[in-house]
Design a protein that fits this description.
heterodimer, A: 338 residues, Rossmann fold, Alpha-Beta Plaits, five-stranded antiparallel beta sheet, B: 256 residues, 0% strand
């Protein structure tokens, strides 16, 4: 079956500093007069609405402080919305908290493991909170410890764990009660590349069982590789929504063809600019040029021909597909890392 | 109400307490018991205190131990768990209304406070030697007072634990717990303050006064003490107030 999520006109204003989960810079500061004293309020979410379909991997992409963690916080009962409603399946998260909590597993941005327990106990007690019998929770704990390569540290107190191990254990814990919806807030922050790939594989595998996955990230490649659909959020507003391919295709001239010639001059650039589909030609140095175009591979033939006809020799060609990085730039005029 | 989850949360706390049992007992009981030894044994044996002081002292020491145990059992873990690491979040996400997590903390604290109080009786008895005369003729009165004291200590721990940050723990001890212990009529009966009229009235805001006087009334009724009904009434009001305050603070802390 699978469980979908609906978010309706969500607004969150922090009148005290936002929780650490909500990150730092990037909030819009809206000083509002409240009573006799001036109070600085932080608008973290400003009318956010979108839907996450049952059984999909959905990504919330945006820079630090865009409102990703606040959205996840509201969806997971940890942050109270100022207004608006969120539904997990049929349950209104803020009216039917307990029912909603049964359906979700949460991996927070920073590991929030129970430091008074060992790795294994963290999993088994988590299972117990969700009413699992001792047999079931032992089995699940063993399987997850194995899957996340933590078996040899199972009986150690988690305060001795490295950051990556804590992150792995947080994810294992979130999967312990086999939730229908798994929330991962910046899951691969602080993971080495190898563990990151392991994590991606585990997420895909979990998704194949019909589970809905919601993740936030500020890594373009992660969103691109993992997510079926994306929402791009900035300053508490959704600025674009769709499949990664669809979003990228929406940018005019989203392809960049990086070319190397024996030499580059004005004659060459005007020849290249004349090719249909090319929006811009930018000279890099004496031998390099970038061609911005609405197509990729199909343009290589015409480019090579035009260059040869004019007496230039092509040495190297590299096509970059439209990227989400470009997309963010296109929508906000800023790079994701700003 | 989801009892499975509630008992699982309680089992988690029991597990953690058991792992830290010895340091926890030392933390809660060593100081009152040392006091018992010095004042109940050394001072009385040397004749500087009358022998009757022993019986008067024991209920007060019991009250202090219960309050320290309950407050610390609830407040200290909460202060840590609500800090930067938000260790408590896993339990907040358990399928139970979050208020029940606070109730669970209170129940766990009450159990520890009762345990600490009951341990004090034989321990103090042993430390003070002969001459302690306890009267167990009023078991229900004793139980009622003890339960109310335990509830006071753990709901007070909840309110404190949700109001105090990690950097203010030292301040919490020196500003809240130390004056409470000194002016809690634990080491002297309330009637001893009659010669200090202002203090005699002022200490009535201190819940420990009712705890000490109530246990004194239940265990050594021949020592002057406050009327038990007054004690029970006052403790019930204090408990209710702290419970409401603690639960509200807990909710504020739990959800941002």
């Amino acid at each position: 079956m699978g469980i979908g999520i609906r978010i309706e006109n969500l607004r969150k204003v922090f009148d005290t500093p936002p929780p650490m989960a909500a990150g730092g810079a990037g909030f819009s500061f809206a000083p509002v007069r409240k009573g006799p004293k001036k109070k600085t309020e932080l608008v973290a979410l400003d009318g956010v609405s979108f839907e996450i379909r049952a059984g999909e991997i959905f990504g919330l992409l945006g820079p630090n402080g865009a409102g990703k963690s606040t959205t996840i916080g509201i969806l997971t009962t940890r942050t109270r919305p100022t207004s608006g409603r969120v539904f997990i399946g049929e349950f209104d998260v803020w009216q039917q908290q307990v029912e909603a909590k049964r359906l979700i597993g949460v991996v927070p941005q920073r590991p929030n493991l129970d430091f008074a327990l060992t790795a294994r106990e963290i999993l088994t007690f988590h299972g117990a909170y969700f009413g699992q019998s001792s047999k079931v929770r032992e089995q699940h704990a063993d399987r997850l410890l194995e899957q996340f390569k933590l078996t040899d540290r199972a009986t150690h107190m988690v305060r001795t764990f490295s950051g990556g191990m804590m992150q792995r254990l947080s994810i294992a814990r979130a999967m312990m009660h086999d939730p229908e919806v798994l929330f991962l807030d910046e899951p691969s922050a602080g993971l080495d590349p190898q563990t990151r790939l392991l994590l991606w594989e585990i997420i895909r595998e979990y998704n194949r069982q019909g589970k809905t996955i919601v993740l936030t990230t500020h890594y373009m490649d992660e969103a691109d590789a993992l997510c079926e659909r994306l929402a791009i959020i900035d300053h508490g507003k959704i600025i674009a929504e769709g499949t990664p391919q669809g979003l990228k295709a929406a940018i005019p001239g989203g392809y960049i063809i990086r070319l190397r010639f024996n030499r580059v001059d004005a004659e060459l650039t005007s020849e290249l600019s004349a090719i249909g589909g090319v929006t811009q030609v930018r000279v890099l140095d004496e031998t390099g040029a970038d061609v911005y175009a609405d197509r990729g591979g199909q343009l290589i033939g015409p480019i090579v021909n035009a260059a040869q006809d004019a007496g230039f020799e092509v040495h190297d060609v590299h096509i970059s597909e439209p990227s989400l990085e470009n997309l963010f730039l296109h929508h906000t005029g800023r790079s994701l890392r700003d | 109400m989801n009892w499975k989850t509630f008992f699982a949360l309680l089992a988690r706390d029991r597990h953690v307490v058991r792992r830290n049992l010895i340091p926890m007992l030392l933390q809660n009981l060593l100081q009152p018991l040392l006091f018992t030894f010095v004042f109940g044994r050394v001072m009385t044996a040397s004749g500087m205190m009358p022998a009757a002081y022993k019986s008067m002292l024991l209920p007060g020491v019991m009250a202090i131990s219960m309050v320290l145990a309950g407050v610390q059992a609830v407040a200290m873990p909460l202060i840590t768990e609500f800090q930067f690491t938000r260790e408590i979040e896993d339990r907040l996400l358990a399928p139970i209304e979050i208020g029940w997590l606070a109730v669970e903390k209170i129940v766990a604290g009450m159990i520890q406070a009762m345990f600490a109080g009951l341990v004090v009786i034989p321990a103090a008895w042993l430390l003070m030697g002969s001459g302690v005369h306890l009267d167990f003729g009023r078991p229900f009165e004793f139980l009622a007072v003890a339960l109310l004291v335990a509830l006071f200590s753990s709901s007070g721990g909840l309110a404190l634990g949700c109001s105090v940050g990690q950097t203010q723990i030292g301040l919490m001890f020196s500003l809240v717990l130390a004056p409470m212990m000194m002016f809690g009529c634990a080491y002297y009966p309330w009637s001893a303050l009659e010669s200090f009229p202002v203090l005699h009235i002022a200490v009535l805001v201190n819940p420990l006064v009712y705890a000490s006087e109530g246990l004194r009334g239940a265990l050594v009724p021949n020592v002057p003490h406050m009327n038990t009904l007054v004690v029970i009434g006052a403790l019930a009001v204090i408990d209710a107030g702290l419970l409401v305050l603690g639960l509200r603070k807990f909710r504020q802390k739990a959800v941002s």
